[in-house]
Queue: 4 jobs
Job 1
Amino acid sequence: MPSFSNSSKSQLASCDPKLQNIFNLLITVFDHSIITGHRGKEAQDKAIAQGASKTPWPNSKHNQKPSLATDVMPFPIKWRNKADLLKQLKSQSPEVLELLNDILVLYHFAGMVKGVGLAQGTEIRWGGDWDGDFDFRDQTFDDVPHYEVKQK
Ligand SMILES: [Ca+2]
């Protein structure tokens, strides 16, 4: 079972208990890192200078104590976003953007279904990732509307 590093524990400890509860449950099934919890003025100023935040001190949710925001990344950490994909596709046509958005919605929704299942103690097997390894390339048949109770 995955567990938090000392750094992640420290960052999460600076967060609102509601966030702590969410990520303490999620770490039992999905390895991830708590990158940032609370940010003081110096850290907020640095985040803005680096382009990681657009909200000046003390207005970011990260600036509250306890922090109402946290930055979290799943392992393996790959700092990518949809802009990187569009750059690779060399296309930002409305059709490509709509297709990408439609796909992101399906995978985001599946994560929510699995998360609600986790909160209720029910492990869900999804047809968009039959083996549940979060690698979507190893599918021989995609059945993204399909959700089933995982048999132990
Ligand atoms: Ca898979």
Job 2
Amino acid sequence: LNRQFSYQALHGTNQDDGLPRTVESLRAIEINRLLGPKFESSNSAGESNSSDEGKKEPVDVIIDLHSTTSNMGVTLIVTEGDPLMTQAAAYVMQKCPPEDRVRCVMHTHPNRNVRPNLSSIAPHGFTIEVGPVPQGVLRHEAVEKTQRALHALLEFLDRRISAPAELQADLKKWYASKNGQVPCFRSITALREGEMSGKITWPSASDNPNFPAYMVHKRLQDRDFELIKIGDPVFVDLEGNTIKYDGSHGSPVYLMFVNEGGYYFKSSGTGMAVAVRANFDLETGELVQEDDREDEL
Ligand SMILES: [Zn+2]
């Protein structure tokens, strides 16, 4: 993540490197002011912030629209235990056409304060990740997929206000055959501090932290949401030697954000994300069981 919404990033307490703030870190502070603030207490903690603008209400829901260079289809990213957003994901998965390949990824975090992403500013956060899209490129069909998911999500929120009983009846009906459980991928808990979730990382060049020393192996390219197990090739070094998966995040596991261009830089979280199959309860948004069947969702 190059734009961080952690307490440290928003309050300048990790600026011990003596470097000036980046554009992204300044933008994070602006967005937090516009939509939040995320950390309520910080304003009343005696900071000499003499802003006399009228106090704005923080927003309830943030929908964060992303593109990724990875072959992720349409991936809805929500947090465990937020039934508003997890039901929204269940709704969007039913409303979008199958060819959009809509999947749900659930992060498990004790609370939003420990999530450093943009949508953590609001009590309810939802990220729509669409790929593959090269950086800096607008692709018509990717924009349309994003629109379909976004419109379904807005329809869900609208129906939740205008006709909540009917909405709940529809959701129950759609997931009745699955006993009210919604299939998803659960991201593996981060092994390294400061990360959203567990990642298989690659080293950087010794003389440049922003230049990867390994390439993602061709066998993995474009194979997001496919299983890998111990011994499968994951990287190739610059001499052409294959680096195999060592099982550090369990085995077998699913990979996400395979060869994401934004993660080449050490400061933005180098690596591929790891997940397992799971189900969440339609009513509570809590995970109910893990499920590593190999059949397609
Ligand atoms: Zn993203």
Job 3
Amino acid sequence: MTEMSLASMSEIFDESKSKDIPFWRVILNTDIFERQVTEKQSYEKMSKMWSAMLSSDDNYRPELRSVSGLAGGDAAKYDEYIKSGDPICGPYISNVIKTALRVAESNACMRKIVAAPTAGACGVLPAVIIPMYRSGRIDEDEAIHSLYTASGIGSVIAFRASISGASGGCQAEIGTASAMAAGALTDLLHGNCEQIGNAVAMSIKNLLGLICDPVAGLVEIPCIKRNVIGAVNAICSAEMALAGIESRVPVDQVIDCMGDVGMRMPVEFRETALGGLAATQFGESVKEKMKSNRSI
Ligand code: SF4
């Protein structure tokens, strides 16, 4: 195995091209090298991650409510809308929206989820992969391969920028999750390395500057619905990349830019609940009620 630091997307592209192996295989090889495990051990671990991701969707319970009482039940409401109405989105995107809501609401209601890359953004990646798997468009092996691709992208962003709302704003959480999902989807749909890079770059660019402003410091509002936007943004970015549309700014430079924007972001917009939606009249009232421990 070759030693790889996952310090840049271009490094992964070079390895993929020189060895003539897919993106996901580069990340699998890196895991084998870094953790000194066998391919079977690495694969089993990722397989467990995939099972946990499926369970986070399967175990959704519409009757549950979050700590504040303000989150929960919306995924069920959306499911009813799909069944009874004529959604504007086709079946795939409708299921993506539903899955993102289910998993993100489950997180707010303290259910088990897979942080990808964080708990706040846990709904994005499963939202794009699970509906493809459940519709039979991809099999389990392909789903697991896409998780390797996603984790490689997340690792590069963690190394060059940030994956934490507290340090880089929501662009670093939902933005990174969206980039991971965009790259994974492009890989699943047989995109090449350049297309994966373009999908990642476009998905980050579209969410650049997004602040982290959770109401009352709880990962509920606006977090849950931002998972939906992260997932749909990932699909649009993957679609554009697969159509041959390029990001004029190279992907590693986009990631560096996101890191720079995050560092310059005022402290009020980095998970302190002092700015943005958290500082609205509504946000302040939730904070006060949470302080006095009253039900909302
Ligand atoms: S608003 Fe903050 S806490 Fe919520 S998902 Fe975004 S980064 Fe995470």
Job 4
Amino acid sequence: MPFHFKKINDADVDFFQKIVGHQHVSDAETTLLDHGRDRTSVVGYQPDLVVFPRKTAEISQILAFCNQNNIAVTVRGAGTGLAGGAIPVAGGLVISMRRFDQILDIDKRNSQATVEPGVITEFFQNEVKSLGLFYPPDPASRGSCFIGGNVATGAGGPKAVKYGVVRDFVLDLEVVLANGEIIRTGARTLKNATSYNLTQLFVGSEGTLGVVTKIFLKLIPHPTFNLLMLAPFRSVERACAAVSAIFRAGITPSGLEFMERAAILRAVEYLGGTSPVEILPETEAHLLIEVDGNYLETLHQDCEKIAEVLEKFDVGDVLFADSEASKNELWRLRRSVGPAVKKGGIFIEEDTVVPRGELPILVDFVQKTAKKYGFIAVCFGHAGDGNLHVNILKEQISDENWATEVPKGIREIFEKVKELGGTISGEHGLGLVQKQWLPIVFSATEIALRQAIKTAFDPNGILNPGKIF
Ligand SMILES: Cc1cc2nc3c(=O)[nH]c(=O)nc-3n(C[C@H](O)[C@H](O)[C@H](O)COP(=O)(O)OP(=O)(O)OC[C@H]3O[C@@H](n4cnc5c(N)ncnc54)[C@H](O)[C@@H]3O)c2cc1C
């Protein structure tokens, strides 16, 4: 893709050093390499320079300068993204948010918090939990990703099925625009009907509209108890069909995750071969089901009801995790699926999402498409949300087939997703790797409206060029 941005020169480096301090600017080869990739398998890009600012005012000066001098800017959180959003495809400057790592306020009176974007999600969750509060959005990467990255990607996670995604917890944002102006997008209120909702526009904008420098979040009371069960199924379709049946029985689990056989086996291997559960030869898929609340007796009743539902779908022996240790082991297994599946090298992860009742059709279609085009697709994901991560692994596939056959299969899967009422990304965003599929789900007019929004915020197109469109 042809870009026409200015390459950073020595005078520019001097300018950035004056703003953030000499030690917080780097053009070291390893730094440029590290900041040239994320957790996709895309390689081959790197920025000219990386800066590590600490204050909003510094970012404001940096952006104003880049805007005037036509320098491309890519904002970076923790670099755990799975869509290539943080990859600086046009070179230029990477702004790392690593030093924006403070929880500024936890307001117990209003059940709210103010955080900087470089705070690690799990750290924040633990801090509010110690005060009896709950911040549910918990991407499986929560131990390493930043809340700012979560906001910018519109992240989800296992708890989204009951509590909602990151977007449902963001009340207001401080943002630096491309021209360096600093704005607030909303208010610290639970309701806000004051014209267009800029806060929600920035959630999921993947660093293309501005740099998020402060985040105002809603919190809720932490539930007292949770129960966890792992259910094995002899058929993938039946496991998926059980998902919507659980809701129809009147229960909203706080987690409802799907792992097909290949996914869980890879996770077991990734964890050194030890498994909290025996994976029987006839088991084709598992559902990990969590319920939470304040009354243990009610939760036990919910689990009994879920077990009754599962019986109708040819479930095997359900494992109930009865201690914190065994619950942690099962969640560790689930959280290891992502890294385990990707461990083997080149992969593409498709973040498909459909209305949850359509999940059995989608899974069946993915399997048939993989067979038709000769690729391996390992599926897992947030089944309660209808969000299926389809991991296509290169492994033995020839370079030619990878380049020609696999994209045909992906196109067919996304067309099916659209037909089922779904879309091409549930929580990872489009970034670099998914943008080619946008015309499958949006018309030319629908895309043009989004491009007009981008132009209104960033007329010179310096912010995260080459992404989304
Ligand atoms: C093992 C694993 C499991 C995962 N599980 C989940 C999951 O369950 N759910 C889920 O949603 N995702 C998941 N992800 C994907 C990833 O962790 C999320 O997309 C996460 O939100 C990215 O955060 P980050 O800080 O790493 O952002 P980065 O990857 O650094 O950046 C992502 C995007 O956000 C932009 N950005 C970052 N910070 C800012 C800012 N302050 N202002 C403006 N733009 C910004 C970047 O420009 C980029 O476009 C997983 C990833 C891995 C590796």
